[in-house]
Amino acid sequence: MKIGKYTLSIINSGYFALDGGAMFGIIPKPLWQKTNPPDDVNRIKLATRNLLLSNGKRKILIDTGMGNKWDEKSKNIYAIDQTNSLEGSLTKLSLTPSDITDVILTHLHFDHTGGSTKIENGKLVPAFPNAKYFVQKKNYDWSIKPFDRDKGSYIKDNFQQLAEEGVLTFIDGEEKFDDEIEFIMANGHTFAQQLIKISDTSNTIFYCADLFPTISHIPIPYVMGYDLQPLVTVEEKKKILIKAVDENWKIFFEHDPETAIATIMKDEKGFKVKDKMIL
Ligand SMILES: [Zn+2]
User: Fold this and answer.
1) Phi-psi region of 139 (alpha: psi -120 to 50; beta: other; left: phi over 0)
2) What is the pLDDT of residues 45-66, one digit of tens each?
3) Residue 201 Cα, ligand 1 centroid: separation in angstroms?
4) In terms of C-beta density within 10 A (0-12 exposed, 13-18 middle, 19 or more buried), how is residue 93 classed?
5) What is the average pLDDT across 82-91?
6) Spacing, Cα 108 to ligand 1 middle (Å)
7) 249 and 269 Cβ atoms separated by less than 8 Å
8) What span, in angstroms and rounded, lies between the C-alpha atoms of 61 and 101?
9) Across the beta sheet with 102-104, what order do the strands follow?
C-alpha cells in the first residue's frame, strides 16, 4: 500500500501475552474470552506489529516490539515468542537495521521500545545505528520517574542510552512530521502517548498503538486496566472513532493477534469493525 511518497510494510516483531483481565479492565471475562481466549494462566495472545514507511531517502519504523534483552523468567511471564523477529521481518524486505533512518516511538512502554536498543560486547547500544529516534518529551519525562503504579512498564535499558547518545529527539505536542505523517496526542493510557496518522488526499492509516490495542477494544467501555486515566481514554476513543468512521480511516492494530488493519462503522449498538484488511 502507498500513502503519498511512502510505501507501507507491516513488520512482525513477535508475540507475547498479558493477563486478560488487565487487558479488558471492567469487562467481565465471559464477554472478552469469546474473542480473546485466555491460556491456562489467564493470559491472552498479543502481537507486536510495527509499521515501516519507505521512500527513496527514508525508512521510518514505528515502534520496535519487545526486543531480545529478556531473561528467562520474564520470557516465561510474558510468553515472549520471537519466531517472527523484527530483524527477520526486515531481512524479508532485503533491509538491515542500518537501513532504518528514523524510529518513531509512540511511547516508551517495554512492548513498544524493547527492540530500540541491544547489547553488543556487553554494552547497551542503539539497535538502529543510523537512525534518529523520536518520542514525546512529556512521555520521556514520565518514563524516567514513573509512579509505582506503572514503573514496571518503563524499562530504562530500552531508551535511556538513546538519550545519552543524543539520538533521541523530543517532540512537544501534536505536530506534523512531514506532509504525510502527523502526531496525535493521547493521555489516557499513559502521559503523552503519540498516535501516528499517515495520510494523503485519498487514504488515511491510523497507527493507534495502545488506544485500541486489539480490535476487541473498539467498543467504548473496553478500556485496559493498565490505563492511568481510563475516563480520558474513553473520551479519546470516541473522538478518534467518529473521525475514523466519517473519513474511512484504516486503523492499524499493533497488538491484535490476527488483524493488522480494519475500518470502522457505527450502528445502533455503537462502534464496530467494518472490514478487516491486509496491506
Ligand atoms: Zn503502553
Assistant:
1) alpha
2) 999 999 999 998 999 999 999 9
3) 30
4) middle
5) 92
6) 7
7) no
8) 8
9) 2-3, 6-19, 43-54, 59-62, 102-104, 132-136, 168-171
Distance 224 CA to ligand 1 centre (A): 10
Q: What torsion, rounded to 10 degrees, do the Cα atoms 18, 241, 275, 111 define?
A: -30
CA–centroid distance, residue 189 to ligand 1 (Å): 7
For residue 97, how far is the Cα from the chain centroid? 19
d(CA 92, CA 102): 19
Measured in Å, residue 60 CA sits from the centre of ligand 1 at: 20
pLDDT digits (tens, 9 = 90+) for 103-133: 999 999 999 999 999 999 999 999 999 999 9
| C-alpha of residue 56 to centroid of ligand 1, in Å | 31
Instruction: Identify the residue with better confidence: 275 or 146.
Output: 275
Kindly state the cell numbers that stand for 72: 528467562
Cell of 195: 498516535
